[in-house]
């Protein structure tokens, strides 16, 4: 049985996650900022809902990326050097999460980014935990991504692209910024070939949680990303 969480119920031990169900750990609870931050500190994330109740996951193995292992392809490097775009940090978080929610995904029926999810993560952005990286061409938003930062750990949530390489451009700038800011790891959650092509790899849950504990030890939210990121824009 998958545990159903009431409003005040803590998460079960992550070792209880159902590996035959992609790492599903629990159902229910809420999407308050407090619960979400507690979840991420323990390597747990919400992915979809059932009848309005969040589904909480902790998969094993875990897809991650270390900033130093990012693979910059020749084509992407050429695109970055050409500079026919503009990258901004935290300029329009709501537009990014809306675009991510509206993007069709192969093998998925609909989107897990519900209205409740958008509200919850926008609130985390207002509190300084959630951040967006955006790619613009001729003033129009054409790609981007969003995620959370706790201490020296970044948790990627979703990305979108309305033009070729638009999300990769945003991701490349994010990785460069995280490396300069001494972030140790990016949580990519589930394996995809796209993430693997960029340098992502799977590690065991125990290894992930050990690293996570170290990287989130300070527990701080970094609120001034927009200003800090400017010097790392290509």
What's the gist of this structure?
The protein has 234 residues and is an alpha+beta fold.
Could you list some keywords that capture this structure?
Aminopeptidase, 4-stranded mixed β-sheet, 234 residues, alpha+beta, globular
Whole-number mean pLDDT: 91
Euclidean distance between termini CA atoms: 50 Å
- CATH top-level class of the largest domain: Alpha Beta
Sequence of strands across the biggest β-sheet: 6-7-8-9-10-5-11
Structural class: alpha+beta
Helical segment count = 8
Contiguous low-pLDDT stretches (5 residues minimum) are none
User: How large, in whole angstroms, is the Cα Rg?
Assistant: 17 Å
Helix content: 25-40%
Shape: globular
Question: What count of structural domains?
Answer: 2
Query: What proportion of the residues form beta strands (DSSP E)?
Result: 25-35%
What is the CATH topology assignment of the largest domain? Aminopeptidase
What does this structure look like?
- The longest helix has 15 residues, at 166-180.
- The radius of gyration is 17 Å and the shape is globular.
- The strands form 2 sheets. It has a 7-stranded mixed beta sheet, with helices on both faces. A 4-stranded mixed beta sheet has the order 1-2-4-3.
- The protein has helices at residues 33-41, 74-82, 93-102, 115-126, 166-180, 193-197, 205-215, 225-229, and strands at residues 4-5, 24-28, 45-50, 53-57, 62-65, 86-89, 130-137, 140-150, 153-161, 185-189, 201-203.
- It is an alpha+beta fold.
- The chain has 2 domains: 4-57, Alpha-Beta Plaits; 62-232, Aminopeptidase (3-Layer(aba) Sandwich).
- It contains 8 helices and 11 strands.
